[in-house]
């Protein structure tokens, strides 16, 4: 382990808070890289070299400091890490006052180094695990043996059921989201097998689920999304959350992630009235296919809807006539005219008049299931691509 300037300053701050004496930290070249006296930073400490060479403490008494370059009265001791000297710690002051602190400070510094080493190792392991999950979401690991080896290395259950949540923010602030993620990790419903990842301007949660795939599972997945939504809304702003399908292999995580992306994109573009901005791919039905229709085929489909009727403009039809609201209400109410009228807050006769007008102008009778479904698909493709 190397003594960095950042680490040296951290050690100085912690030890001076306890000791109340000036502390200097010298690296293996004898340069002061941490000190309570900022004027001594980056200067050469001659005695530090001798401490490193002899591996023994060195006491500088009053009047002796002039014999050495960059040295003041005090005590200097070697800093050991894994039985190797990596630097020197010096305590400035009258020998009679500071000599008794020598061993205490030395032990404190070495303990801080051990803690920093462990923290660094944990951080490296965390980053390596995050990188592994990022590769899984990108579907970059094709070799199943390599995937199994990495899962074993990180002590992951390869066949555990998992679901991906994609969280989109109104405005992405990296610092705020990082702090929020640390707090979310401490919540009771986030377990050891779960992980948050910052991905672009979004936050991803890969959540393990231990229950059998059924309606109860879907309810629990949705309940978790609501809890996360409330927590984020309270601390930052209202988010949008897309939920992918539950998969039972690490190699299939990219599918759940892509579906969470689709859920967000489809839900927002089609103006789905999801509660609290939560969109679950399992609730989309035929709309699941819309992102897979390329622009060319989507435009051809819309153009062919009213072939032979040049007077109709698609934008006007779907926007001015509020055709989309009528279609969605009819579907929701199983073509029941009275219930649909209530849904739209219009009189039944008014709705019938609108339906007849749409039939006369477009050639599509919305009381006919086939006609209704054709326009429904057209309307959703229109919303998704506009």
TrEMBL record:
Q: Which InterPro entries match?
A: CdaR-like_regulators (IPR051448), CdaR_GGDEF (IPR041522), Diacid_rec (IPR008599), Homeodomain-like_sf (IPR009057), PucR_C-HTH_dom (IPR025736), PucR_C-HTH_sf (IPR042070)
Pfam families assigned to the protein according to its UniProt record, in alphabetical order: Diacid_rec, GGDEF_2, HTH_30
Q: Enumerate the spans annotated as Putative sugar diacid recognition domain.
A: 3-136
Organism superkingdom: Bacteria
Q: Which residues form the CdaR GGDEF-like domain?
A: 144-266
PucR C-terminal helix-turn-helix domain residues are 326-380
Q: Which family does it belong to?
A: Belongs to the CdaR family.
Question: PANTHER family annotated for this entry?
Answer: CARBOHYDRATE DIACID REGULATOR
Its name, as the record gives it, is Carbohydrate diacid regulator
């Amino acid at each position: 382990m190397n003594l960095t300037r950042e680490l040296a300053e951290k050690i100085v701050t912690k030890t001076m808070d306890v000791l109340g004496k000036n502390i200097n930290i010298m690296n293996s070249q004898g340069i002061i890289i941490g000190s309570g006296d900022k004027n001594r930073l980056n200067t050469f400490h001659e005695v530090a070299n001798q401490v490193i060479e002899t591996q023994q403490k060195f006491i500088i008494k009053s009047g002796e400091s002039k014999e050495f370059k960059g040295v003041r009265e005090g005590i200097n001791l070697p800093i050991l890490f894994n039985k190797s000297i990596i630097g020197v710690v010096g305590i400035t002051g009258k020998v009679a006052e500071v000599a008794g602190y020598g061993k205490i400070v030395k032990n404190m510094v070495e303990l801080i180094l051990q803690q920093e080493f462990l923290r660094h190792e944990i951080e490296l392991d965390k980053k390596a695990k995050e990188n592994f999950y990022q590769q899984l979401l990108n579907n970059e690991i094709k070799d199943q043996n390599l995937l199994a080896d990495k899962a074993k290395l990180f002590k992951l259950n390869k066949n555990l059921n998992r679901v991906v949540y994609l969280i989109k923010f109104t405005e992405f602030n990296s610092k705020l989201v990082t702090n929020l993620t640390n707090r979310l990790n401490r919540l009771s419903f986030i377990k050891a097998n779960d992980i948050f990842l910052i991905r672009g301007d979004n936050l991803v949660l890969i959540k393990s689920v231990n229950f059998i795939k059924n309606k109860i599972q879907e309810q629990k997945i949705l309940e978790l999304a609501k809890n996360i939504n409330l927590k984020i809304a309270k601390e930052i702003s209202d988010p949008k959350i897309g939920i992918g399908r539950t998969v039972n292999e690490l190699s299939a995580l990219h599918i759940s992630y892509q579906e969470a992306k689709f859920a967000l994109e489809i839900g927002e573009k089609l103006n789905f009235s999801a509660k609290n901005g939560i969109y679950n791919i399992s609730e989309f039905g035929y709309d699941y296919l819309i992102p897979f229709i390329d622009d060319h085929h989507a435009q051809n489909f819309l153009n062919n809807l009213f072939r032979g009727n040049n007077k109709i403009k698609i934008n006007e039809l779907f926007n001015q006539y509020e055709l989309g609201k009528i279609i969605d209400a009819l579907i929701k109410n199983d073509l029941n005219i009275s219930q649909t009228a209530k849904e739209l807050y219009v009189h039944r006769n008014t709705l019938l008049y609108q339906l007849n007008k749409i039939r006369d102008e477009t050639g599509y009778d919305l009381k006919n299931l086939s006609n209704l479904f054709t326009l429904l698909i057209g309307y959703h493709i229109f919303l998704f691509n506009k």
